[in-house]
Model the fold of this input.
Amino acid sequence: MIPKEVLKNIRRIQITTSRMVNDVFAGQYQSVFKGKGMEFEEVREYQPGDEIRSIDWNVTARTGHPYIKKFVEERELTVMLVLDMSASGFFGTAKQLKRQLAAEFCSVLAFSAIRNNDRVGFIAFTDRKEKFIPPRKGLRHVLRVIREMLYFKPEGRGTDINSALEYLNKVSRRKTITFVVSDFYSGDFKKMLSVSNKRHDIIAVTVTDPWELNLPDVGIVSLEDSETGESFMLDASDSRLRREYSLNAQKRLKERSKFFQSGGVDTIDIRTDIPYAKSLFKFFKAREKRRLFR
Done:
């Protein structure tokens, strides 16, 4: 039996995110993702008017006559939500904890998907695979996914994006639109990300709290690494320390951005102190613009 408070919270998110999908992102999701997935159907002889870039040069060379590859549009897409549930998600100094923000953001994506009759799947991970819900359609299914995102209690505390991507490739044989939602405090996963992005359309959603970027002047503070349990104290009134902290944070962000860019992975940056609607809208617009100029 699901507690009334849990149902109330899920209902609140359903109302909030559904309204956002209908009012703000109506058409954006469809224009960006619908028609993007193409499935090979057959090879046939070239006919006047066919696009030159569709020519299959291997078959053409073997037969001595020009042939083209014919593709058909995938009518249904699969959206995978790969959510980091490590202990660092329970940090937040603004409006929400990082994990709460991530769950609500994923809800918008899930409602956008089912509005367009697409399937939605879910993978929760920490330093291991925690939970897998196979892709399905429908409101009832999405509400179950949201419940797990909000209230599932993982066993692990750390973050292993490598293992999450490996599991994605194992359970998703066909191409998916995959949103990996995390703060990306993980070991090296560059190689696995490159492999996964060739098989799927990976979008990295980075979740950040303002204190991770700039340390406020609050005097002596005691901090604890939620994933390792390591604790330490520092003097936040020291301006030189705060400046160094900010510089290191900016350096980390630039390196992460460069890393995703080099792998051809699109990113969406969301923060606990800023409404995420603008970031998502910006992502949709950039994707749409890129498709028009291909």
Residues 213 and 249 are 5 Å apart (CA to CA). The two ends are 51 Å apart (CA to CA). The chain has a mean pLDDT of 88. The chain is about 45% helix and 25% strand.
